[in-house]
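Appendix B. Chain record.
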Amino acid sequence: MLRVGRFAPSPTGPLHAGSLVAALASWLDVRARGPRARWLVRIEDADTERCLPGLGERILAQLADCGLLPDDPPAWQTRRTDHYQRALDRLVASQWAYPCGCSRKDIEQALAERGIAHARHGERVYPGTCRTGLHGKPARAWRFATTRFEAARGDAMLRWDDRRLGARQQAVGSEVGDFVLKRADGPWAYQLAVVVDDADQGVTDVVRGEDLADNTARQIELQRALGFATPSYLHTPLVLAADGDKLSKQNGAAPLATATPAEALAALQTAAGVLGLGPAEAATIAESLASWVARWRDLYNPPP
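Structure tokens predicted for this chain:
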């Protein structure tokens, strides 16, 4: 079986220490499977309001500085919008998607009327207001009919295994609700775009940061609704900022310095440490990557 992995950064800023951990892990996971496995890079620039011109190219250059070269030309989400539209059309035709006229204020008011408080960093569980129709409101978004899909499946709990985190489960309908597929302001939602992209690119193994683990159940439900295969998942440890939150561009993560081989190797050594691989006793990037491939194989035992 051909194994395909991918690294899919959003170009809202250059690579930082946290994103290099995910990039290195996904690259190592592919290379540990042998010469036939393929590693892809996808620039997730579908959210055109947050993604800045030129940053996709800068990320690709930083990856190249670190010796992390994709096996195919990079894919760009902004060039794939017709694929997302076809997937949404299929979901609508199957009655697994419906239009929603609710604003954020409408949702918060409906939840407040039910006595449901919104926790910091928690989900605003959609109350299902437009599940039976728009009630005279204009459509603002399209949502996945999660509760309807779970009822048809006959099980509200979705279960899967993560190669690092172990057995996982989530009741998407009650914990998330009918989630957005396309937003009111136009951009395609991450959940739909990533599922369509992974299927079209033949991705068999998703290796990404642990902050994205909570998205997995939603993506598996969409895969099943669209008839796509489900990849294996491995979620890597996070690099934390001083306040204990995930290191990100939003909380001041510094861009990685990779312009010289010494800088790139230092950044890779730090990322390998986060992954539990330890330092590489090697003088070059290529030698270091080769030693980490062997350690990754021993630690995570990826199937061939």
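Further analysis of this model is presented in Appendix C.
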